[in-house]
Amino acid sequence: MTPSRRHVLQIGGGILAGLAWPRLSLAGSPAEIRMQGKADGSHVWFDPIGLHVQPGETIRWINLDPGNSHTATAYHPKNFDRPLRIPEDAAPWNSDYLLPNEAFSVTLRVEGVYDFFCIPHEHAGMVGRIVVGNPGSHSPKESAGQALPDIALQAFPSIDEIMQQSVVRRT
Predict the structure, then answer these.
(1) Which end of the chain has the least Cβ crowding within 10 Å, N or C?
(2) Number of domains in the chain
(3) Which domain does 134 fall in, by range?
């Protein structure tokens, strides 16, 4: 029996779809940043603390700290009058408080450097930095009269470190 043209096309289409399927499912996977902390609450952090992604990628924060609520909040005047430390054309975000095992996602489309913090733990240095695309001259600038806590400023990985490693972890 000779297979019909329709049958051959159906088989070929099924094979092509099967080959493309794994790539499609992986392409939509968001980059993940975990919110973590010691059981006694003495130390809290984002992991990774530095991340390099391409424009249009989605970032997902998940709270894996069983003892604390956390936020993922962009440094932006719309968020509690904090200094602007994301690209001017980018939309700010604030996850609100995430309980253990809750998650929040945002898609970053504008190239540049995005600094973010945890509202209740900024004073403990719980901050992070995402570099989207090629940051060029889009480095965060300190605004007069709106300085960050020293511990937060010291916690940010450098842009060069993020560009060289893609993922920077510190715990």
Answers:
(1) N
(2) 1
(3) 30-168
